[in-house]
Design a protein that fits this description.
- The chain has 348 residues and is mainly alpha-helical.
- The chain has one domain (3-333): Na+/H+ antiporter like fold (Up-down Bundle), CATH 1.20.1530.20.
- Helix content is 80%, strand content 1%.
- It contains 16 helices and two strands.
- Strands 1-2 form a two-stranded antiparallel ribbon.
- A hairpin with a 2-residue loop joins strand 1 and strand 2.
- Helix 4 (43-58) crosses helix 9, helix 6 (108-122) packs antiparallel against helix 14 and helix 8 runs antiparallel to helix 9.
- The longest helix is centred in the N-terminal third of the chain and has 30 residues, at 72-101.
- It is globular.
- This is Arsenical pump membrane protein, putative.
- Belongs to the arsenical resistance-3 (ACR3) (TC 2.A.59) family.
- GO terms for molecular function: antimonite transmembrane transporter activity; antiporter activity; arsenite transmembrane transporter activity.
- It is found in: Cell membrane.
- It is a multi-pass membrane protein.
Length: 348
């Protein structure tokens, strides 16, 4: 894990502080940036989101999908948790906390927007950071590629309908045109661009050219993320300063969701007797979120200043430290997991 990835929570925290400070000192500048919109898409944020997402899509090797027949159980677990369980548990927790448990602490409009943001997080399975988690837990890198590749293909067709369903259940009006255009702009286009770039680099015959290209892009991806965080918190600086407790309120159900989904997946993987190198990445993929996509869609649907956008950014702040604790848990239980499932212990 590189410097940026290892201390991502620190950088995000600093970006949040920068956004709050500059948002209060220079509100006119942030108002100008917020006004740069076309068809409900903020142009500055769109560029930053693309800077984040494109390097991730270049890493996806769709040719690896053909290898799924070698061990389909792990992929089945990943798909079921990501698309049939995780979105619905997130929607349930969001509703429980902001419509029942926190109802006296958050105004109804903000509560509805927070729920929307958390639903968007729950419906967006992770793409990029999964490779980091898989490496740290000594997962099968090729199988991780298969899982991520299939997830991305499903996301193209399933993200919008599931979002619309869960938002509608929570009485949140969703403009289908905006939702579909967001999926096209932030999933389909970068996915195609990444695939074409990868094909071009692989066609050159230099096996290292792809790795070198991705390595060059990684710092830009992190800068895009941090720039987005600065802008989002700058746009909402006054609201956050007036109501700082809301960050904590959003974080609580997000943490419960993250730990809960992990242990559900971990338990099922053990019952399925999956090998650790396949089960561990499956748990990480199921647990983490494609928060870059969630941020982009929240902004497109609900606006830069919305509680939905805020909730997705809090997801960034929460996810990395939580995932690092889960990496430590998985590694500490590796030998026992292999023994319980009847697989050979992998030497580290």
């Amino acid at each position: 894990m590189g410097l940026f990835e290892r201390y991502l929570s620190v950088w995000v925290g600093l970006a949040i502080l920068a956004g709050l400070v500059f948002g209060n000192l220079m509100p006119a500048v942030f108002a100008l940036v917020a006004s740069l919109e076309y068809a409900h898409v903020n142009l500055v944020i769109a560029v930053l989101i693309w800077v984040m997402i494109y390097p991730m899509m270049v890493q996806i090797d769709f040719s690896s999908i053909k290898d799924v027949k070698k061990s389909p159980q792990g992929l089945i677990l990943t798909v079921v948790i990501n698309w049939l369980v995780k979105p619905f548990t997130m929607a349930l927790l969001a509703w429980l906390f902001f419509k029942v448990l926190f109802v006296d602490w958050v105004d109804p409009q903000s509560a509805t927007e927070y729920i929307a943001g958390m639903i968007l997080l729950g419906v967006a399975p992770c793409t990029a950071m999964v490779f980091v988690w898989s490496q740290l837990i000594k997962g099968d890198p090729n199988y991780t590629l298969v899982q991520v590749s299939v997830n991305d293909l499903i996301m193209v067709v399933a993200f919008a309908p599931i979002c619309a369903l869960l938002l509608g259940v929570n009485d949140i009006q969703v403009p289908w045109e905006t939702l579909l255009s967001s999926v096209f702009l932030y999933v389909v286009l970068p996915l195609v661009a990444g695939a074409l770039t990868r094909k071009k680099l692989e066609a050159d015959g230099d096996s290292e050219s792809l790795n070198k290209f991705v390595s060059k892009l990684k710092p830009w991806s992190m800068l895009g993320l941090l720039g987005t965080v600065v802008l989002l918190f700058g746009f909402q600086a006054q609201t956050i300063i007036d109501e700082p407790q809301n960050i904590l309120l959003i974080a609580i159900p997000l943490m419960i969701q993250t730990y809960g989904i992990f242990f559900i997946t971990y338990y099922i993987a053990k019952k399925m007797k999956l090998s650790h190198k396949i089960a561990a990445p499956a748990c990480m993929i199921a647990t983490s979120n494609f928060f870059e996509l969630a941020v982009a869609v929240a902004i497109s649907l609900f606006g830069l200043h919305s509680g939905a956008a805020l909730a997705t950014v809090v997801g960034v702040l929460v996810e990395v430290p939580v995932m690092l604790t889960l990496v430590a848990f998985v590694n500490s239980r590796r030998s026992k997991f292999e023994a319980d499932t009847g697989n050979e212990t992998v030497e580290t």
